[in-house]
Structures are given as structure tokens and as C-alpha cells.
Amino acid sequence: MNKPVYLIFSFLIAGSVLTAQQKNIDTLLRNAEKAQLSYRFKEAVSLYKQVYDASADSTIQKKVLSEITHCENGSALLEYGVKPEVIGSTTLSFRDFFLYYQGMADSSWCIVPQNLSKVSANVSPRSVVYLRNGDSEIIYSAKNRDGRWKLFSIKQIDGNRWSAPKALNNEVNSPGDEIFPYLSKDGRELYFSSNGHFGIGGFDLYVSIRDEKSGEWGTPQNLGFPFSSPKNDYLFVNSDDGSFTFLASDRSISNPDSVSIYALARDITPVKRSFTDYSEIISTASLSLDKIDTSAGEGSKQPLTSENSDEYSAMVLKIRNLQNQIDGFIKTIASNRSLYESLTNEADKKLLESKIAENELKLISLQSELRGASAELQKLEMAFLEKGMLVPRVTSSQSNGDGAKKTTAYNPARNSLGRFPDLILEKPYLPFNYTFRTEPVSVVAPFDSIPGGIVFTAQLFLSSDKADVKRFKGLLPIFEDITPTGKYLYFCGAFSTYESALEAIAKIKKSGFPGAIVSAFNNRKSTPLKSARTLAAQRDKNLGFRVILEEYADTGLPQPLIDLIRSNSEKDIAKTVKDGRTIYFIGTFSKREDAEKLLGILQNAGTTGASVEGFSLQQ
Predict the structure, then answer these.
(1) For residue 34, how many other CB atoms are within 10 A of its CB?
(2) Does 316 map to a domain?
(3) Which CATH number fits the domain that encloses residue 71?
(4) Contact at 8 Å (CB) between 509 and 517?
(5) What is the pLDDT of residue 403?
(6) 614 pLDDT band (50/70/90 cuts)?
(7) What total number of domains does the chain contain?
(8) Does 189 lie in the same domain as 161?
């Protein structure tokens, strides 16, 4: 066999082996995905691991590791699932499914305008928000500069004046996407969909609780099985009339333009338990119309004794009754407050004030009673679970006549789309960007924009006339000073050390400014270089240093930036409040040059709004 034929034969053999191997990987992937979508999570993990071992493609391996995590999360969530009472379901267009949530006020669902959402109304998914009369805060989803959907908040200042949009904290906003937020009536619970938190695949459903003292949103909790599925789940809502819990999902359909709405009986005290029987897992996950069955099912825990079951059911119904009373008082108080605003007779207003105050006292008492009853219910649940007992569902139809609501039929009817109100938004605070950089267009700032203290800068040129911005060839930041003789003096950059200014001078000269020289200022007053360098050395003697990232105060640090920092520094990433704003910093560095080295790496990667800050170590 001559060499060329041998080589051809060798390539054919290699090609056939690779093709067969790829087919095997594809088959394993399909089987793993099928097992995952069918809630056979342990089987899916085993198959995904085989794919990982067989594939040399880093992209496939990365996806496989992600899906293994989803499957492990799915197994964990099956340990603490619930079995909701399903009232009905329907399949609708993904574009406007939210308008079919029953028990919600008409014309209250609104499309978030483009100046807030940063996308047109035709983009899918649409950015929608449910607005109630008197809302003083609106939480909505919008695309950030990286093209990710994030949750933002605006708050009413007075009338139609509202604050500038502010991204929710990084507890809520993940490296992925957050869409379809829904704020509870009391403003304490925020429900939303995300593909970036602890989940089991696709978009899962989450709730975050607002801390009453700090006002910050807490770590989101996955709503768990069966509300979250391996496919996409959207817009978890408890209807305003208290009849339903809604969610939308594509778990049972393949048409990407459609979604199914599931209407569930609202349960304010869902009982969580382990799901081990596969047939029960599948039937529960399908959210098909309920056939009430209180049997434990094969492989599940033993039922409660009648005595314990009766005590538990009575407590659940008591809590539901308390919640219904609380909802009624909240509605009455809100209605009376609206009426109060329209009254002109002082005697009528005083009488109504008394009624509002009386109802508020009753509301506080009921809320206190509800907290106590909920704590008792939790103790019962823990006692049952410790004994390996199954807690039976107490459905809406088990009303004892004391006010617990009976099941309401789900009759999907389209609500009207509302109109987002005309708002005047405050301008967001934008910190001055002192990063030395080149952009398509230069911007000239007044000389008093130079920071205080010892600053080194590059003096560019002196001109009798005001210079055109094109002359600066995209260099930033540019500062303009007017001399006592009326001439214009231009500078570029604001550096904390002489060495960093020298490094910038070399780049500036190559940009067409051969006469550029280093100048120094002390609180914006010209200072000899020698004196400035001495003062800078004294300034840094007892200082620690950190890299400040101001531009991400409202959006949070994107994951690629975090990865870049981690790969170049072992220093901590933290956040603090400065002048009323949350900022991120990296440090502490003992040497300014170490901090500036990291700063340079970040700037070269395109990070803007970063700077080095020194602070006294004696504080």
C-alpha cells in the first residue's frame, strides 16, 4: 500500500470514528434532555456525565455542567414540593396571556414604555407591569446595556414626578435574565421569572421578600415543585380578589408563540413534602385539572391520624379566614382613604378619619393574630414531618362556614390593556468619568471638574481661540482652563501619580500632541512637579488603596467583569455606600501602583467609571 492511499484510508477511518462518536454524544444528549424534562433527574445526571466524558467540545461541556446543576437542583426541590388544587387551564398567545388572569382589575396591566424598558412593544417577551391605584413604586423589567433583562424600580416623589430608574440589588438581579415581575398588594413580596438563579432549567419562578427595616430585597427563593419546571415558567400572581393563584408555562406545549395559563386555588399555607412516587410527580407537574385524592400514593409517607388531621385542618381554615378578613380591611381602608380625598366637609372628614383609624387598629390586631396562628401551624407541620407523616391538603372546598372561601370557577376572559401613566422622571446621577481613554468623540469639561488634592495631568496646548472638539481626536477626559489673558489652556487626564501621567503622555504624543507635558495641581492650583511628587509620596505613606467602580452602582457588576477581577487579583470585591449611593470597590491594596495596575487591566478591557481611591489606614 503506497503512502498516499494509506493516508486517505487513515483519514476515512478517523472520520468514521469521529462521526460515530458524535452520533453517540448526540444520542446521549437527547436522552439526557428527555430524562430531565420528565423529572428523572438522577438518570439525566448520569447521562450528562457520559456526554461530558465523551465530548472534547468545551461549549458542550459547559452546557452539560449547567444542566447537571439544574438536575441536582430539581432533585432537591422534589424534597419540598406541594400539591396545589388546580381549578383550570387554557392555552393562549404568549403576547398577551397576562390579560386573561381572572380576578384582576380591568385595564391594570400595562406595557412598560420604551424609554424605561429600552425595547419596543413588539419585542418578545413584552415588558408588562400590573398597576394599582395609589402605587408609589413600580418595579418593571428592562434591558441593560449588556442586553440582559433586569428588574428596575422607580418611586413616586410627588404627583407625577418619579425617581430615576434604579436596578434592584444583586440578590435579585442575577447574571441571567429577570422578567415578568409582580409586586404583592402590600409591597412586601416580589414575584418574578429568572433563568439566572438556583433553578431546574429555563425560566423558573421566584419570590423575594423585602426587609422591613432596610427596605432591601432579600435572596430570591425558588417557588419550587410544581410551580417551577424544567421548561419556562412565567408571571406568578395571586389575584387581587383572593380567588386564584396564576402562573403561565410552556411545560405542556411546543409552540413557542403560545403559553398555558394555570389557575390554582390560592393557598396561603401550602404544605411542603417529599415527592418520591414517579407517577405522582408527573401528574402533579402537569398541573392538570384536579381529581381530589387525599391518598398518600405508593412510596409516600403514612397519613396523619384523624385527630392530628382535624387539628391541622382547623388551623389552616382559621388562617384562611384571618387572611380573608385582613384582605377585606385592606380594601375598606383603601376605599375610605380615596373617599377622604374627595370630601370637602370637615365634619365628614373627621368622622371618616375615626373610621379609618378604627379599621387600622383592627387590621393590626388581625395581622398579629395571623402571625401567631401561622407560627402554630409551622410547629404542627414540623412535628408531622419529624414523625414521617404526610400532611393532607386542605382545599378551598373544605370550608367550615366561618368565612373560608369556596372554590371559584376559572372563566378566562380578556381584560383590557391599560395605559402606562405619563411620568416625569428625575435624571439619574452620573459620576464624572476620569478614566483616561479614547472614544469616537471627545467631550470638553470645565477646569473645575478636575478632582481636588494632588493631581497630575497632561498639558496639551495653549490657544487664542476655543478649540473644536475634533482637535482632541477622541481623547478623554479633556479639561479647559481660561488664563488671565483670556487664552484657552487644555489638559488631558487626571492621574494620582506622576508615573501614571508619564505613561499616558507617551500615548498622547503618539495621538498627535508632540508638545504634551506633565503638569501638577494641588486643589486645582498649579504646583511645581517636584513639590507635587513629594506631597503625593507623603499622602500615600499611611494610606490603603482600592479600585472604585462607580458606574455599576445601579446595575450591579456583570459576571464577565467579576471573572476578570478574580483572574487578576485576590483582593475582595465589596460594596459600600458613598454620598447616598451604593458603589463597588476592590481592595485593600497596600501600594497605589498595585491598585493602578488592576485599574489599567480593567480599563484596557473596556471598563469605564473606575478609579483608584486612597484612604487613611488609621481610621
Answers:
(1) 13
(2) yes
(3) 1.20.58
(4) no
(5) 43
(6) confident
(7) 4
(8) yes
